[in-house]
Amino acid sequence: MKRIGVFVCHCGTNIAATVDVEKVAESARHLPHVVFATTYKFMCADPGQKLIADAIREHALNRVVVAACSPHMHERTFRKAVERAGVNPYLMEVANVREQCSWVHRDKPVGTEKAAALVAAAVAKVARNVPLESGKLPVERRALVVGGGIAGIQAALDIAESGYHVTIVEREQSVGGRMAQLDKTFPTLDCSSCILTPKMVDVGHHPMIEICSYSEIESVEGYVGNFEVTIRRKATSVDPDVCTGCGECWNRCPVKKLPSSFNMDLGHRPAIYVDFPQAIPNVPVIDRANCTYYLRDGKCRVCEKVCPTKAIDFTLEDRLVKERFGAIVMATGFQTASLQQYPEWGLGTYPDVVTGLHFERLVSSTGPTEGKIKRPSDGKEPKSVVFVLCAGSRDEARGRSYCSKACCMYSAKQAILLREKIPQAQAHVFYMDIRTAGKDYEEFYMRAKEEYGVNYIRGRVAKVYPEKDHLVVRGEDTLLGRPVAVEADMVVLAAAIEPRADAAALAQKVGISYNRDHFFSEAHPKLRPVESNTGGVFLAGCCQGPKDIPETVAQASAAAAKVVQMFSKDALVSEAQLASVNEAWCIGCFLCQPVCPYKAIQPKEIEERRGRDKIKRTVSSVNTGLCQGCGACAVACPSGAMRLNGFTDEQILAEVDAVCL
Amino acid sequence: MSEAIKTAAPVEGEPMPAELKTAEIPTRRGPAPGDPEFLGALRDCCRSLLAEGHVQRIIAYRETPDSLRPEVAFFASPEETGDLVWDLFCNTNICKYLLDYRTFEGRIGVVVKGCDARGVVQLINDMQIPRDKVEIIGICCPGQIDPAKVESAAGEAWVSRVVAGPDSVEIVTEEGTEMRVPLESVLTDRCLSCRKPNPPVADVVFGEDQKGRISDEVFEQIAELERMSSAERDAFWNRHFERCIRCFACRNVCPACSCTKCVFDQQEPDWLAGERNQANQHFFQITRAVHVSGRCTGCEECDRVCPVGIPLRLMNKKLWKDVKDLFDSPLPGTKLGVRSPLVMWDPKDADSFE
Ligand SMILES: Cc1cc2nc3c(=O)[nH]c(=O)nc-3n(C[C@H](O)[C@H](O)[C@H](O)COP(=O)(O)OP(=O)(O)OC[C@H]3O[C@@H](n4cnc5c(N)ncnc54)[C@H](O)[C@@H]3O)c2cc1C
Ligand code: SF4
Ligand code: SF4
Ligand code: SF4
Ligand code: SF4
Ligand code: SF4
Fold first, then answer.
1. This model's pTM is above 0.90
2. Does the structure's ipTM exceed the value 0.85?
């Protein structure tokens, strides 16, 4: 006997203002199998949940419908509530009468009628639900961190400190990421390296952390708790077990004038190099594309000759290493936009037009100018610098609608640094709005204006062009309502923060989603901000969206906490609403196989009776560890052999019938 | 093997995915239909395939008392192949019979035209039969004759036989009168617009590649339908759909319909209710067309067998046109190892939703 209870939530006035909840409960009482219906102010609150539990006992309910907010919000809450009262959690359905009803209607009778229909649909469905059981999945208690910027470093340290092994895969020679390129950091102006280097040393020495630098992700297979990752360890030409990092090789390499990407191409590096003096690991790599040995069939060999420990090995090759991990933290960070769509600003045309990252290298004492601000064209000390905010950000028409978040603050910082280093220099900042949400941020900005006399001009820059030995920045002062032209020795564009060029390709490899700007997508913007949509893959830092260092570090620690939480369990509970195959109907066409984004579908051989004969045939089967219950396969299957438990055709049709018939 | 058959280069095709892979069998060529040696060579070929144990069954055609309507026949021994025929009345697409041999232990030969061969390839690509289980005996098809068109050309008289030439046919009636009509006037509709008369994949091929007939008639009709208002289009299809008697012949002959439990036969849920109202008629038609889209080989067998003359080709071809425009994929059944573009992910896919 099916005995269904219906619980209609007021959600304060969120629902009750546009839906007559009493009427909805009353109409539910007349639906087939419904033996009890009531309303309550906040169903999700403790007393609301207790009300459900009590009703289950009192009225011997074996199925429950909760008419409330979106199942995204509280489906789990109510599943747990009914489970505690002895009902299988999958015999509970949520009717979304808030987001899909009360919030989108103004007219109460209309809202009430629709809510009643949604409840009828949920009742029709729950009557056809069957109990589902979750399985158990083992967990490999090792974490992979992709990207060794401050986000990856922080996440790795937190996970390792909790006692679990971590591998950091970093593409460059050294970990450190963008933060290593910065000079001082807002809002406290402490030196970036001084706070970063100790952390880099910690990851370098931590017994539970392995750094795979100069490496990339080749492929990711498997599923939450059981990923199988192939890492490409690019050939470094240096044996890390022997190298002591003495520096003989990179000091003596005759190829000296290669652009240093760490210095934003403003400085040079040899063919055998470390990214910067504090590099971790402190083992150089040979840039084979530019090394004389590789370009001219074995000539040169200077590094090999000077190396006191014989660490150079020109014959090393790329290695593919396969490893198992239980969780993955994505921390691949950002790059700044090339601004090709903005020829009017002259980035790439005029050498003295640079980006914020270039400026960081020009003020940094480890940079190409040893911290003396010199303009790139002729090395002269600039007497006037124009900073342009929102360079490529907040411009829907040319591709990026979002705010890059850190630019207001770092440009204020850079203006302050300019005024500190060259007190007689003028600093002008063109801005659209100044956004200083953050602790001590507004105060920092006010200091730039008041204490350091930075000149803020509200308006967009229309054009930058050279005149004599300087540049002219033309724009409009929108507060004064008139055009302005400012002479500048240097222009610093706060170029938009965007994901790494390969972010989308990497996301596809790992199997996570990304937004239209290619930032990795979080599972829920508010409630699950550090989880991706794929179980076991977490997000930290600028790869998920623009942010500054404090936010990056906070997110990295949060991601680490999620990993540790996962590792602290004996086994993972697998999803119960998974695909399953009706083998009798399946014809083994495998139209379902390529649509599965989680590679969960495999062929399987079964034996069957055909009359008096036994035959063997191949049918589809679902790996319950891999399946995420997305339902794509069930749609692709022509004959309906593939079904998604909890969303079977019968259940969906019953809902449709309840609404339409 | 007959002397007339000489070895030629293998027929082109995509590399197959691992599960479909089979040893490349070199394609051999035999004489063309119309050549006096043709039928003898075809029979010899089939006979030796059976005799030498390369195949255990051959699906082909056999004469019947009605010379315009040979029947599909299954040959199990070399002796039986004396009855085997292939002429311009082999309209039936026989590829679907392969499904009866899904669990047959042994190899099966099939004698196929271009359109039938695509069906065989589609069954292979839909993993209904492994490539190495089928010996594809292909014929470059000069076009098939519609018996109904011959009969109406003959008027009241009974047709006793038809002698086909390259451009015209001679119709001989029971009374012995002879009349000559242009070949095009009696060809089937589908052959009149057939662009791919040659088997795309085969182990033996008879005849040299045919050019086919490039008529845009179907696509012109589709363009006309696209220009209609939705009300006009609805009325157009309604006129056709309401005649459907749900005999399911269209599905049963279709090489893309290989389900053992078709949705239209299911009781729980009963997708297709028995009542013949407009909603149900439309539901059936649209569902069938969508299920085969991306896998429909354009053989037009469904259109041919429909007893009430519903122009199913228009629906199938329209869907094919859309799939091709969106995904730029080859016509289903023309390449081994190609899955329906509708079940494949590719980051480069057209994304018309944005
Ligand atoms: C000019 C400028 C000045 C700034 N100044 C400040 C400041 O003063 N204060 C502040 O709080 N914030 C500042 N920021 C913001 C700060 O730089 C970022 O918040 C922070 O660097 C983000 O760290 P991350 O680890 O997420 O990314 P990143 O630092 O970009 O690190 C990502 C790492 O991942 C690696 N990687 C990328 N792709 C792959 C791949 N496919 N495989 C393997 N490894 C990969 C990269 O090599 C890199 O090491 C500034 C930003 C800019 C642009
Ligand atoms: S529901 Fe189907 S397509 Fe989705 S993950 Fe599971 S098996 Fe794959
Ligand atoms: S489940 Fe459906 S789509 Fe998958 S192999 Fe079976 S019949 Fe084909
Ligand atoms: S109509 Fe659909 S379900 Fe029926 S046989 Fe064809 S593909 Fe299968
Ligand atoms: S739908 Fe019709 S034209 Fe298409 S493959 Fe099937 S029978 Fe041939
Ligand atoms: S062959 Fe024609 S009448 Fe029969 S089911 Fe198909 S469309 Fe309907």
1. no
2. no
